[in-house]
Amino acid sequence: QVQLVESGGGLVQAGESLRLSCAASGSIFRSNTMGWYRQIPGKERVLIAFITITSGPNYADSVKDRFTISRDNAKNTVYLQMNSLKPEDTAVYYCAAGARIYDPNYWGQGTQVTVSS
Length: 117
Known about the structure:
This protein is mostly beta strands. The chain has one helix at residues 26-31; strands at residues 4-7, 10-13, 18-24, 33-39, 46-51, 57-59, 67-72, 77-82, 91-98, 106-107, 111-116. Strands 2, 4, 5, 6, 9, 10 and 11 form a seven-stranded mixed β-sheet that branches. Strands 1-3-8-7 form a four-stranded antiparallel β-sheet. It is globular and about 40 Å long. The termini are far apart.
């Protein structure tokens, strides 16, 4: 049973924008912190942004001021708006959910983002 469904990846040029979406089942969305990880081949998966149920967003330094995470409670969806994309942002992006976002209970299937120079 797929519980986190991602969409929105693709190929863009440096400086352009993309928005990723992650639709969750209602029970998961309502009771968990939602976040986005990314993974480069051969490297560990890294948390880049998360948003809790009650407090504001948090970002890794590598994406701060360029990426925005938000959650739409009516749609059980979390978004990652990515602006001013750089080639080093190229990775597979994963949606995640959990009480402790650094050890998620749920993962999306991953979506590829490729930024060309």
